[in-house]
């Protein structure tokens, strides 16, 4: 799931920015092919979300160059698909070249190999990490990338540190800095928190779910078990939350859908937020990748038409008449 930061203009409404009939101004939507045996739905879902994220699409277009890996270049393969999304007359396009580049890049790790099903969230995250390497290959230390042209770290990365502070004796651990491209939350923990925190915001709910089971020993060993505090230090424009399910078939699906919020405040998601912009900003849900019956599909919010679009490989449909689960 991706939330994108969207600042409303005073008095402005998102729906008003779209004028009926101006179809030419829409970012084009096309399907991505998935022939029998290809098992490319995980990749297709990740690519559709990346394409529909305005910030990502525009930033990628504006990048002047990259360190190319030729045949196995994920960056080039993604650019080709994006250009076909824009210019092709076909309703559905092959994603084979990107699939091949992904398989070649992760050959040694035996991940994302041709014909095998894989994880869409990890695919999304790894494409972003590869883009970082194509822009700043000298910066192997991903956690400290400060390159202004790196889309991955400038737009998606959450720069965090975690620390545990003991309420009982006051001792605190050394702050541990790290970056995250996807913030993972356990579904089981989320559903447990929903019962206890009916009045809290979606962000606070996620924070509670991601810290609740994560107790550490007091740094001075006074005997207390304490919660970890995560502090956000930057203001990411796109925030991705990955929900971790305990099993393929879960009876928590309806409950999860019911607890999903369409707005997210970063101040709720983390113990503390230091960046002023991040404190004020509110993020809106703009995309989702879903998994069911060994198959991935995705939903994305089409900014210009203010409509949700459903992507299932070659099939693209506008979502109409969303019913709220009571
Ligand atoms: Zn290239
Ligand atoms: Zn980077
Ligand atoms: Zn203590």
UniProtKB/TrEMBL annotation:
Residues 30-326 form the USP domain. Keywords: Hydrolase, Ubl conjugation pathway. Coiled coil: none annotated. Pfam families: UCH. GO terms for cellular component: cell-cell junction. CDD domains: Peptidase_C19. It comes from the Eukaryota. One of its GO terms (molecular function) is cysteine-type deubiquitinase activity. This is Ubiquitin specific peptidase 53. GO terms for biological process: protein deubiquitination; response to auditory stimulus; sensory perception of sound. InterPro entries: Papain-like_cys_pep_sf, Peptidase_C19_UCH, Ubiquitin_hydrolase_53/54, USP.
């Amino acid at each position: 799931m991706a939330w994108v930061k969207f600042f409303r203009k005073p008095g402005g409404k998102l729906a008003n920015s779209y004028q009926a009939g101006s179809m030419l101004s829409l970012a084009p939507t096309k399907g991505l092919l998935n022939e029998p045996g290809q098992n490319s739905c995980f990749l297709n879902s990740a690519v559709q979300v990346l394409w529909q994220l305005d910030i990502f699409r525009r930033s990628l277009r504006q990048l002047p160059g990259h360190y190319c890996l030729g045949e196995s270049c994920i960056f080039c393969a993604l650019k080709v698909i994006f250009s076909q999304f824009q210019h092709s007359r076909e309703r559905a396009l092959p994603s084979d070249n990107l699939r091949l580049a992904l398989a070649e890049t992760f050959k040694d790790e035996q991940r994302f190999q041709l014909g095998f099903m894989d994880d869409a969230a990890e695919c999304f995250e790894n494409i972003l990490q590869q883009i970082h390497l194509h822009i700043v290959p000298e910066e192997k230390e991903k956690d400290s990338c400060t390159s202004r042209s790196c889309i991955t770290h400038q737009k998606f990365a959450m720069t965090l540190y975690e620390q545990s502070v003991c309420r009982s004796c006051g001792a605190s651990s050394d702050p541990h800095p790290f970056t995250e491209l996807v913030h993972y939350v356990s579904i089981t923990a989320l559903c447990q928190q929903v019962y206890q925190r009916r009045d809290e915001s979606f962000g606070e709910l996620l924070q509670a779910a991601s810290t609740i089971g994560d107790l550490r020993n007091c740094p001075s060993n006074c005997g207390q078990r304490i919660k970890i505090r995560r502090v956000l230090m930057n203001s990411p424009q796109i925030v991705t939350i990955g929900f971790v399910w305990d099993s393929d078939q879960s009876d928590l699906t309806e409950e999860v859908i019911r607890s999903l919020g369409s707005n997210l405040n970063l101040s709720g998601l983390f113990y503390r937020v230091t960046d002023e912009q991040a404190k004020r900003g509110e993020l809106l849900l703009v995309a989702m990748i879903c998994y069911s019956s060994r198959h991935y599909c995705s939903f994305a919010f089409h900014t210009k038409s203010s409509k949700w679009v459903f992507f299932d490989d070659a099939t693209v449909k506008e979502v109409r008449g969303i019913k709220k689960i009571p």
